[in-house]
Amino acid sequence: MTELPKKPRIAIGSDHAGFLVKETIRKYLEAGGYAVDDQGTTSEESVDYPDYGKAVGERVASNQPDFGVAVCGSGIGISIAANKVRGIRAALAHDVTTARLAREHNDANVLALGGRVATTEAAVEMVQTFLTTVYLGGRHQRRLEKIARMENHS
Prior knowledge:
The protein is of the alpha/beta class.
């Protein structure tokens, strides 16, 4: 009997503006058999997105979960915050094409989404695409190595 491939563990987090989308994603992932590491928030009460971008980034950088999903109102702020964590390549996606390219070309390890921009259905579709797309390597690897060198010299 062949062993099924292990599904990646996913860290998720959001601020208040991304809470409903994060919860939809969490439920989708759990129903699909993914282990989910929810970094909060736990309601729509106002909180600061940098705290949750950092939390998701730190979890992914520690190699405990394999990937992260971070959601704020636009996806911009939380992606900036996550990218401040060494080793994180957070990519803001607006559709399945950008979610796919984030993995194929950039080997992104955190997907950032906008809770006020994407519908819950679109968000789930982007997460599904992100998690099932393989990094292509090849010519893209030298670019990631340049980024890593930039990160190591800052």
